[in-house]
Write a structure and sequence with these properties.
Length: 148
């Protein structure tokens, strides 16, 4: 545990590892919320069901909470963009391990950003299933005397 706010994260800070199991219900509801209507995210009965690769975003929130129990910090954190590399399907109810690292922190137009790389691996054998790069806006402070 880093014991800090998310807004205090710096390059090199490690997040996790932490175990997660994405249930059939969680995968289906996440897919619905993100308008992913492919049958393999909603399967029932004897059909195999998989978690959407971007469900890793929910695990990122768990990593942030564990590493930074103080929460977001003095300013709101806004999810700006992500890139998910889907290497192998993630069957529901599979125990997976999430881990991450802050790889960049930068200021652009008076806004502070962090970029985090996160991996999702099969807990049983360590196979890489999803690789995820995430960018968050941490703070915005208008220039003194100027408009936002």
């Amino acid at each position: 545990m880093l014991g800090r706010y998310i807004s205090d994260l710096e390059p090199g800070d490690k997040l996790g590892p932490t175990e997660v199991i994405y249930s059939a219900f969680a995968a289906r509801e996440y897919a619905h919320c993100n308008e992913m209507y492919q049958p393999f995210f909603h399967a029932g009965g004897d059909e195999e069901q998989y978690a959407p690769p971007t469900i890793l975003h929910t695990g990122k929130l768990k990593l942030f909470h564990q590493a930074c129990p103080g929460g977001k910090g003095p300013d709101a954190r806004v999810h700006i963009e992500f890139d998910a590399e889907f290497i192998e399907p993630v069957p529901v109810n599979t125990k997976v391990i999430l881990s991450g690292e802050v790889v960049d922190r930068y200021v652009k137009k008076n806004r502070t950003y962090i970029r985090t790389n996160i991996e999702l691996r099969n807990a049983a054998d360590g196979r890489l299933l999803v690789r995820y790069t995430d960018t968050n806006l941490l703070a915005f402070k208008p220039a003194q005397g100027g408009a936002a």
